[in-house]
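hi! just following up on the protien thing from before. the input was this:
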Amino acid sequence: MNKSLRLMQFNLENFFLYLDKELPPTWPDISEDGWQALTHSQVKLKPLQKLKSIQSIINDQDPDIIIVCEVGGKESLENFNRLFLNNRYRAELIEGNSDRGIDVGYLIKNSLNLQFLLISHKERPLNFLYDHEKDGPKKSHYFSRDVAELRIFESDLSHSPLAIILGVHLKSKLDRDGVDPDGRHRRAAEVKTLMDIYKEVRKETLEKIPIIISGDFNGIANSHRMEAEFQPIYNDTQLKDVMEIKNVPEDERYTQVVFNSLGRAVPVQIDYFFVDERFSQIIQSAYIYRFKDEGGFEIPPPQSIEQRSSLPSDHYPVVCDLLFNNI
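and the predicted 3d structure came back as:
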C-alpha cells in the first residue's frame, strides 16, 4: 500500500485574523476599510485581498499538510480555515515565544486517514547568552518562536510514526538592541539546538522513519551558499535540501526577494524542506510556487519594496510531494 502526501510550507507574513465583530452577510465584498473595522485589536488584520489570494493558492495546490509561519495564534488560523477554506482543514498550533505574537503551526486536511500529535519545544533552553548577560541572573535564551514537532501516524498513537515534521521559524536578522548583528549568534544557537532535537528524535525512532525539517530559516542554509550559522546541519547529519535532492535549478529556488543598500532586488532562498538523504526516495517532487495574477499568469519577481508588499506574502510557498511505500 502506498500513501502520498503533499506538504506546503508557507510564511504567511503578519497573518492576524482576530475578528470580534459580527461579519455582515456580504463580507467577502467589503472594502478594506470595512474589513479592518471588524476587529478591536491594535494589530491590523491581514488584508482581505491577500487572504483571498492565499485561499486561491491553497485551493489550487490542494496540500494535505501546510506548515505555516508568522501566524497570529490558533484563533487566526481557525478563522481563516472557517471563512476561507470551508473547514476542510484542522488548525494545530501551540503558542510559542514570539514577542510579536507570530507562531508556527499547521493546517491538516480533515480527509486524511491519519492521526497526529503536536509537540512544542518552546521551553527548550538554547544554552546561549549574549556576552553582556553572562554575569547576570539569566540562564539561557529560548527559541524565538518554537520548534513545532508534528508526529504523523498511520493509525493510533501507540505505533511508530509514519513521519515527523519539525516546523521552524528561526531568529530573524533584526537586531533591535544592537548586540547581535543580523541576529547571527542567536540564530546559530537556535540551529544547534534544532539539530540536537533532530538527533534526539532520530535516535528515539531508531533512524527508521523520515524526519522532515521545514520552515523559514531566515538565512541561506543550502549547501552551495550556506551562511556560517547553518554549518551544524551538515556537520554530522545527512540532511539535504529537497531542492538539491530533486535537482531544481538554483535560479528557481528563491523563496523571497530582498533589497540591498542600493535598492536592487536580490532573490534568496530562506525557506526549506530538509530530509535525510537516506529517505530521498520518498521525495516525488519539490518546487517553489509562484504567485499568479487574476488571469492565472505568473507575477514577475518584485523589483521594489512596494511591488513586494502587494503580493500575498513576502515569502513564496514551498511545495513537496512525498510517497510512502509499503506502509
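The mean pLDDT is 96.
Helices lie at 32-36, 48-61, 73-84, 184-204, 232-235, 242-245, 305-309.
cheers
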